[in-house]
Write a structure and sequence with these properties.
This protein has 359 residues and is α+β, with helices and mostly antiparallel strands. Helix 1 packs parallel to helix 4, helix 2 packs antiparallel against helix 4 and helix 5 packs across helix 10. The mean pLDDT is 87.
Length: 359
């Protein structure tokens, strides 16, 4: 009777092993049969209470069943592992003869996009783009721009100076793109009408300042230009850039390289922590400007009695933040792909005045 019962139990357990669909189900069968509280383990513990005449045969039968079941479980596990590996290899198979089908994921950085927007606007006004070196000397960065020796901008706490060989004047990372204006005026006679976009460097870092940032400066020099032309030029620029009618106002200010000098404010509206550019009840300072100082013209070999002009400068990063709602300047330089996917532009989204600057 006991032997018949063991045979029936063995057939059932072996059938469960054979029908296990995955390793988890197989492990459940193994624990149920051979675990500490498994059915075969319980049967083995009960042998001691049997009659001596039955104990030997029952023990031998149970041991044979345990060995047979363990072997079946191992064989079934091997089959299941092999099947799982085959399924994984089939699912991960790559046909290297086919071209990649993924959609393009690259995005144009907001600074690059705004750079192109600015160029498009001023090119339509007749400006040319001028460039110059990032590493400058004291003359082009300060002296030629009428910046006095005691000015704070010339101190080490504000400017990145480079080590110079013995007996040579040390150079620096330009603090603005105004040296490009100086080099342009020294290399060609008036009339001059240029913008100078590029990287600039200052010792500063917070939510609205970084040690390296982008700036664009404009310069016009001829015999007839006056302050009215400067105002009209900048009014047209901000309206075209923000793509809305933007009220502006000019406040007297001081810059060593312009006289008279002014800061330009644009109209805005603040509501619940948000800022909207355009007609509103508040003002936001956006750039500095003025008529080119006669001393600057003189340093560049231009007769200030005959020629005059205007200049202005604006931070590219800052107006990119204002236009596209970017809260922190430092995120421009974090190289975070998630940020770039959110704020970036499609590669073929080329800004033009006739098609619109924004995406």
């Amino acid at each position: 009777m006991i032997m018949d019962d063991l045979e029936t139990l063995g057939q059932r357990l072996l059938a469960e092993v054979g029908n296990a669909e995955n390793l988890k189900a197989l492990e459940t069968t193994r624990v149920g049969a051979l675990g500490k509280k498994g059915i075969l383990t319980t049967r083995m513990k009960a042998i001691g209470a049997m009659d001596a005449s039955l104990r030997r045969d029952a023990g031998a039968a149970l041991n044979r069943l345990k060995s047979e079941l363990a072997a079946a479980i191992e064989a079934r596990a091997e089959d299941l592992r092999g099947a799982a590996l085959d399924a994984q290899l089939r699912s991960e198979r790559i046909d290297v003869t086919l071209p990649a089908r993924r959609a393009p994921t690259g995005r144009v950085h907001p600074v690059s996009q705004v750079f192109d927007e600015i160029v498009a606007i001023f090119a339509n006004m007749g400006f040319k783009v001028a460039e110059g070196p990032d590493i400058e000397d004291d003359f082009h960065n300060f002296t030629a721009l009428n910046i006095p020796p005691e000015h704070p901008a010339r101190q080490d706490h504000d400017t990145f100076y480079l080590r110079a060989p013995q007996g040579q004047a040390r150079q620096l990372l330009r603090t603005h793109t105004s040296p490009v204006q100086v080099r342009t005026m020294k290399s060609q006679p008036p009339p001059v009408r240029i913008i100078a976009p590029g990287r600039t460097y200052r010792r500063d870092s917070d939510m609205t300042h970084t040690p390296m940032f982008h700036q664009v400066e404009g310069l016009v020099v001829d015999q007839t230009t006056h302050m009215g032309h400067l105002k009209g030029c900048l009014q047209d620029f901000v309206s075209a850039f923000f793509e809305v009618e933007v009220p502006v106002r000019f406040r007297p200010s001081y810059f060593p390289f312009t006289s008279p000098s002014a800061e330009m404010d644009i109209g805005c509206k603040r509501s619940r922590g948000s800022l909207t550019i355009g007609a509103g009840d508040d003002w936001l300072e956006i750039l500095g400007c003025g008529m080119v100082h006669p001393n600057v013209l003189g340093h560049c070999g231009i007769d200030s009695e005959r020629y005059q002009g205007f200049a202005f400068g604006v931070g590219i990063d800052r107006i990119a933040m204002l236009k596209y709602g970017i809260p922190d300047l430092r995120s421009f330089f974090d190289a975070d792909l998630r940020w770039l996917r959110h704020y970036g532009f499609a590669a073929l989204d080329v800004p033009t005045l006739h098609a619109g600057l924004a995406r």
